[in-house]
Amino acid sequence: MKITGRIAAALLTCAALFTTTVGTASAANLDEPRLKDIAMQIVSSAENSSTDWKAQFGYIEDIDDGRGYTAGIIGFCSGTGDMLDLVELYKSRKPGNVLEKYLPALRKVNGTESHSGLDPNFTKDWKTAAKDSTFKAAQESERDRVYFNPAVAQGKADGVRALGQFAYYDAIVVHGDGGDKTSFSNIRKRALGKAKPPSQGGNETTWLNAFMDARVWAMKQEAAHEDVSRIETAQRVWLKAGNFDLKTPLKWKVYGDSFSIN
């Protein structure tokens, strides 16, 4: 059969649509349950020196980073507002819980490193609450609402796969997404000055390198975060290997410790 120019054009269009559809279907997204669990393990390796993220609901300490108490599966902080939001959610789901009495103090210390009104029993009561399935569920809900879901949504909008979505997620966990110069949005804006994401016609590797460079810059603005191994000996290693889908086995190092997921 003779293929006319019009038929040839139609065939090329169909081929392009088929390729796009297959590519989209096969692209790994971080909100797939298996990959979400992997993401939790990687973040936990940096935040808690353990991949056992489900053991961290009761974690709480002041790590001297100016944010007061850091606690739970994602490092909710008494000085940044996310711990306050979490305890308020816990109250709404289980009135009269052991942490509810600390709400006035959490409102007062928000934005500071103070423990005023929290000591001496807050850490003990946090650990008690962490045995409650309602509090565990509240932690997961707030993790998703504040950190995980926004990161994955932005990653999908930018056309990056699981690795890029994870890079975004880790950045939001550490820096938040407020208005300061090291927030996630401003890290991304800094990267946009160097490269374009795939959704804007850019190369995924080039874009993620630019984002990671901007993230390294942000980390080094603060003494508490000047160790950038969670990027350079983890995320960047997978990027160099072309592991955009975070396929296992994964091996990485954070703060000098070695981890793996088979």
Give a description of the structure.
The protein has 262 residues and is mostly helical. 54% of the residues lie in helices and 7% in strands. It contains 10 helices and 5 strands. The N and C termini lie far apart (52 Å). The model is unreliable at 1-25 (pLDDT under 50).
What distinguishing features does this structure have?
signal, Lysozyme-like_dom_sf, Glyco_hydro_46, two-stranded antiparallel ribbon, 10 helices, mainly alpha, Glyco_hydro_46_N, three-stranded antiparallel β-sheet, Chitosanase, single chain, disordered N terminus
Briefly summarize what is shown:
This is Chitosanase. InterPro entries: Glyco_hydro_46, Glyco_hydro_46_N, Lysozyme-like_dom_sf. With 262 residues, the protein is mostly helical.
The biggest sheet, with number of strands, parallel, antiparallel or mixed sense and barrel status, is: 3 strands, antiparallel
Count of helical regions: 10
Count of distinct strands: 5
Shape verdict? globular
Radius of gyration: 21 Å
The assigned structural class equals mainly alpha
Arrangement of strands in the largest sheet:
1-2-3
Percent of residues in helices comes to 40-55%
- Give the end-to-end Cα distance, rounded to a whole number of Å: 52 Å
Mean pLDDT: 91
**What's the order of the H and E elements?**
HHEEEHHHHHHHHEE
Low-confidence stretches: 1-25
Strand content: 5-15%
